[in-house]
Amino acid sequence: MTTVRVKVLRFDPSTEAAPHFEEYLVPYTEKMRVLDALNYIHEHHDGSLAYRWVCRAAQCGSCTVMVDGKPGPACKTEIPAGTEAITIEPLRTFPVIKDLVVDTDRAYSRFEAIQPYVQRPEVNARPELMLPGEVEEIKSLRSCIECFACLSACPVVNEIQEEYLGPMGMRKLAELSQDRRDTQDRVAMALASGMYNCTTCKNCWAVCPQEIKVPEKAVEKLRAMALRKGVPPLPPHKVAIASIRNYWNPWMAPRAQRARWAKPYELPTKCETMFFAGCSPSLLKQNLVESVVRIFRAMDEPIGYLGKEERCCSSPLLRVGEVTMFEEMAKANIENMRKAGAKRVVVTCAGCYKAWKEDYPEHFGEPGFEVLHISQILEGAIASGRLRLKAVPENEVTITYHDPCHLGRAGGIYDAPRNVLRAVPGISLREMSRNRENSACCGSGGGVKTARPNLATSIGARRLDMVKETNAQEVVSCCPWCEQNIEDSIKSAGSGEWKVRDLVDIVCAALE
Ligand code: SF4
Ligand code: SF4
Ligand code: FES
Q: For 363, what's the count of Cα atoms within 13 Å in the CB-facing half-sphere?
């Protein structure tokens, strides 16, 4: 019989000063759930273990715990065959009552304060029925089982609990705002509940047993509703929106400046493989875009570029709710790529990737060309031998890789950058405690870096702690926003020794 070593964080605040781990051996059974393991421990090892469960069917939301650092309902979380050990802890951010039982009263009373039910006057002039299309639109939002997993996973709730209602509440407000029977101003409530603090990191979605897309279906939806109702955007967002409208980039840089980096390369404007350089790489990190071109030259593969016709991918617009302008800009980008004869569009920024890969098709359907992140190109080229890398002295480093939220959770790209890094001679890769789909947000997305830079760097400081735990010398990522925010977090934390690099720069430095 195989057994699993189950480490449980035990704590009785009424008698103990601090929590401690206890380890139990649990016989493994096929398709075993975490709750089965807890029940076994309770029955065979220690009847005093405190944990909650009721329905055993992922419906009541009572059994949520952290399993190997990720929150989820114990009754739904399967222990995969072959697992040697797992760690079970109480939900992060909630005070512990005993062992795995946490106090959700405070979070729940904040949730109750938004009156999370259809509100209407006694004599209701509005239709009492919702139309089928409307029900469909909010169906997923209504499926919440109030398990609190998303609150525990949310980097903003973890940082400023009192200033952000969190994903569970945002979901409810979005649901009620689209319910024709409800007469409350749910958008105003969302504003007062800190809706602009969400980084759109998708951590809530990644842990949600109902797979509710809170960032897109709730937060971005509420932000769009606010703009449509005439609520002015936050002043820094207003500046960025105006800049994108006038200059096609959020950095107030004249349009002609965008393509300046490409002059020496004389890239064609029509090609089967087109490079979408993006605003931040083109205007703030020219070494990055130049590295992409050098890599394509090293592979002896042609690459085209729209030049000054390229517009912001407009991810920043969508994130802050400016849907109409997003659609105009996105349409122009797609049309230009079609005119250029693109069979594939290559991007290097995680924000651009989410826009091209997920948001454009959502708004306009499939564009008729492939969208690839540069890490995928590099992975393929290295594997096939089209790209050969040599060891260079400065590459003799231990590095850790930060998954950008919009490349990882949003795009599902986890292996390509890691495989590329492993292929660079002299680099050894060390994972952070939170990685891949459970990776922690750096804090910069969703317009937070622009409007609340201090919040962005304080979330970034938490990520930096995870970087430090690895004892790696450098942190590498695939997103100029993440890289900038991690750099800023390093500066504000006074940890000047850390180097932050982009994957592309590392590969470019190792070209033979
Ligand atoms: S997307 Fe991230 S920041 Fe926004 S509510 Fe979800 S977990 Fe929180
Ligand atoms: S949104 Fe999902 S994760 Fe959050 S409380 Fe509801 S069911 Fe749980
Ligand atoms: S016991 Fe009800 S959700 Fe797990």
A: 20
Instruction: State which ligand 3 atom lies nearest to the alpha carbon of 75.
Output: 4
- What is the C-alpha radius of gyration for the chain, rounded to an integer number of angstroms? 24
Backbone phi, then psi, for 442, in 5-degree steps? -80, -15
How many Å apart are CA 138 and CA 99, to the nearest integer?
A: 36
| pLDDT tens digit sequence for 348-383 | 999 999 999 999 999 999 999 999 999 999 999 999
The best mutation among 202, 222, 406 to test binding of ligand 1, ranked by most ligand atoms within 8 Å of the C-beta, falls on 202
pTM for the structure as a whole? 0.95
| Helix pair angle (374-384, 415-423), 10° resolution | 50
Question: What φ, ψ does residue 153 adopt, rounded to 5°?
Answer: -90, -15
User: What are residue 183's phi and psi, to 5 degrees?
Assistant: -110, 0
pLDDT tens by residue, 127-184: 677 888 888 889 999 999 999 999 999 999 999 999 999 999 999 999 999 998 898 9
Domains and CATH numbers, the chain: 3-100 (3.10.20.30), 105-120+130-228 (1.10.1060.10), 235-379 (3.40.50.1860), 388-509 (3.40.50.1860)
**Which residue in 107, 193, 113 sits closest to 147, CA to CA?**
107
Which atom, in ligand 1's list, is nearest to the CA of 157?
8
Relative to the CA of 203, which ligand 1 atom is closest? 7
CA-closest residue to ligand 2 atom 7 = 144
Calpha distance 475→489 (Å, rounded): 13
Strand ranges, E, within 374-433: 397-401, 427-429
Considering every ligand atom, which ligand is closest to the CA of 51?
3
Ligand nearest to the CA of 144: 2
DSSP 231: P
Pocket of ligand 1 (CB under 6 A): 153-156, 167, 198-204, 214-215, 219, 441
143 C-alpha to ligand 3 centroid (Å): 14
